[in-house]
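Appendix B. Chain record.
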Amino acid sequence: MTHRDFEGWDEYSRRLAAATDAGSPEWARLPQSRDVMLAEGGKLYFTGIPCKNGHVSPRDGNRNCTQCSVANMRAYYERQKNAV
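Structure tokens predicted for this chain:
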């Protein structure tokens, strides 16, 4: 595990509050940006900022919200199931 630079109490408390409101306070432990995540070799990061669909959840390396990714996969499988 590597130690990352501390983002400051204001930023940390904002991210912790967003994670707690979303029901997963452990998300605040994830890297705060994509650049930090890539430097650490991780797969997810958490900004605490809602995505365009209003989800507050971790994002992957492609900057996609994980909840949006799940919704897109479900919609894809439903379309494929109905197409066959």
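Further analysis of this model is presented in Appendix C.
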